[in-house]
């Protein structure tokens, strides 16, 4: 067994066996009496973590025309939820310690539903306020779900993480492909097309409600990880997470508008985005497995980022006859970049506590950085009146992600450790 494979195995065992030394009650009865109900609840919750982001983009031109939004304001609208993913992520552990993770997930699902209603019903002010509320809700739940998976499905953590990731992609694909047809069905009303996605959030809350009454453990031992913000490798992991996420949210926020500008209808553009996201289901599972077969992850990072850039440039510049091929290429690349970003957090950490803190840093700082990409696309489009110049944004972000990834992909650990307090 080579050193990297051995370290990977050790880290996976540490994460799987985190109950032995983490903040979960030890030597307690089984925490899940009806695991199928928890599994169903987790899937339904995960399905709701992307529709608020991917449902708007196919209707963005229609919403902008209806409310008189400039391209800069539209760019801010696509940026705001992503910014909230980073800004509100640190609230998740604070709320969980105070109220319990299950209660927080339930409450935030209802907050997400409220944000979706708000942005679809109260004009420009409601649109921005609801987008902020929805983004904050997704940011908080997104931090809590992986911990619940690790705690209650410890022996199936890898498989459950795969199911969780697939549910995320499926939710994004469903919203991207069906929002425009829904709005057309209900009399060309973009308000109903956007507001529809509060229903899955309410359904998820109903199925999650039984978890609130269960005792899933308590926090007994506190750990401290010091020096992470001064560690160069931690910043390389964070930058890779943020830069690849920036391209992902540019696609969620602007790809349909780009394709509509090239001559597609809103329905066609939404279906292309939906198809590209569905393809991510395959590469998000395959890329980490392939990446851990070698001595490090640098080659895999370069390959998936080149696939992503190739798909983006194809969608932007290539003849429309081959558009679906470029969309598939884009999906293969972005599914790999996202799953590798999550994998790097585990592989670069010595134990579960470092991994948790590195995850918080990578998501909090990374998603805040990622929000600049969609905003920049809106500004450039506003300045130039077209889409051709945004290729430079793709190139700069993509090259930056490769540089950061070459550092983050080395077979090293971040130079910090955890200690009890």
Considering the chains and any ligands shown, give keywords for the structure.
421 residues, mainly alpha, Growth Hormone, Chain: A, two-stranded antiparallel ribbon, 18 helices, disordered N terminus, MFS
Q: How would you characterize this protein structure?
A:
By secondary structure, this protein is mainly alpha-helical. The chain has a single domain, classed as MFS general substrate transporter like domains (Growth Hormone, Chain: A, Up-down Bundle). The chain is built from 18 helices and 2 strands. The chain has helices spanning 3-16, 35-47, 51-54, 60-67, 71-88, 91-99, 101-121, 123-152, 157-185, 190-195, 198-212, 232-261, 266-291, 298-317, 323-347, 352-370, 372-384, 390-408, and strands at residues 223-225, 418-420. A two-stranded antiparallel ribbon has the order 1-2. Helix 6 (91-99) crosses helix 8 (123-152).
Summed up, what is this model?
The protein contains 18 helices and 2 strands. It is mainly alpha-helical and 421 residues long.
Oligomer: single chain
Strand order in the sheet with the most strands: 1-2
H-E order: HHHHHHHHHHHEHHHHHHHE
Number of helices: 18
Poorly predicted runs are: 1-31
Please summarize the sheet with the most strands. Answer: 2 strands, antiparallel
Q: What's the domain count?
A: 1
Pfam families: MFS_1
Keywords: Membrane, Transmembrane, Transmembrane helix
InterPro entries: CynX-like, MFS, MFS_Cyanate_Porter, MFS_trans_sf
GO molecular function: transmembrane transporter activity
How is this fold's topology laid out?
Elements: H1 3-16, H2 35-47, H3 51-54, H4 60-67, H5 71-88, H6 91-99, H7 101-121, H8 123-152, H9 157-185, H10 190-195, H11 198-212, E1 223-225, H12 232-261, H13 266-291, H14 298-317, H15 323-347, H16 352-370, H17 372-384, H18 390-408, E2 418-420
Antiparallel strand pairs: 1-2
Helix pairs in contact: 2-9, 2-11, 5-8, 5-12, 5-16, 5-17, 6-7, 6-8, 7-8, 7-11, 9-13, 12-13, 12-14, 12-15, 12-16, 12-17, 12-18, 13-15, 14-15, 14-18
């Amino acid at each position: 067994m080579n050193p990297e494979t051995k370290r990977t195995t050790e880290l996976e065992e540490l994460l799987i066996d985190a109950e032995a030394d983490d903040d979960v009650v030890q030597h307690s009865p089984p925490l899940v009496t009806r695991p199928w109900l928890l599994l169903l609840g987790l899937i339904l919750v995960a399905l709701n973590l992307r529709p608020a982001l991917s449902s708007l983009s196919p209707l963005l031109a229609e919403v902008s025309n209806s409310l008189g939004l400039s391209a800069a304001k539209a760019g801010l609208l696509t940026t705001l939820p992503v910014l909230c993913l980073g800004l509100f992520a640190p609230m998740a552990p604070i709320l969980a310690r105070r109220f319990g993770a299950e209660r927080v997930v339930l409450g935030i699902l209802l907050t997400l539903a409220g944000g979706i209603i708000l942005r679809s019903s109260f004009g420009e002010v409601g649109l921005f306020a609801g987008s902020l509320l929805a983004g904050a809700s997704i940011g908080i739940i997104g931090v809590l779900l992986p911990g619940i998976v690790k705690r209650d499905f410890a022996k199936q953590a890898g498989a459950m993480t795969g199911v969780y990731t697939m549910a995320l992609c499926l939710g994004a694909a469903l919203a991207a492909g069906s929002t425009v047809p829904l709005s057309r069905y209900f009399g060309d009303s973009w308000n109903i097309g956007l507001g529809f996605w509060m229903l899955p959030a309410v359904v998820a809350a109903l199925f999650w409600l039984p978890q609130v009454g269960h005792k899933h453990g308590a926090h007994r031992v506190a750990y401290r990880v010091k020096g992470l913000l001064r560690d160069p490798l931690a910043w390389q992991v964070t930058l890779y997470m943020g830069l690849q996420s920036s391209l992902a949210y540019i696609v969620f926020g602007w790809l349909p508008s780009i394709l509509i500008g090239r001559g597609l209808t809103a329905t066609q553009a939404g279906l292309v985005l939906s198809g590209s996201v569905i393809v991510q289901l395959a590469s998000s599972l395959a890329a980490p497995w392939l990446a851990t077969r070698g001595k490090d992850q640098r080659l895999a990072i370069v390959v998936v980022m080149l696939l992503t850039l190739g798909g983006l440039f194809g969608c932007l510049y290539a003849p429309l006859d081959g558009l679906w091929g470029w969309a598939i290429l884009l999906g293969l690349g972005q599914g790999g970049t996202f799953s590798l970003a999550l994998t790097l957090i585990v592989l670069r950490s010595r134990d579960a506590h470092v991994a948790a803190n590195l995850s918080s840093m990578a998501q909090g700082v990374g998603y805040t950085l990622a929000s600049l990409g969609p905003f920049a696309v809106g500004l450039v489009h506003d300045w130039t009146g077209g889409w051709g110049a945004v290729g430079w944004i793709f190139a700069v972000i993509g090259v930056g992600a490769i540089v950061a990834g070459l550092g983050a992909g080395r077979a090293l650990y971040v130079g910090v450790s955890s200690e009890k307090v």
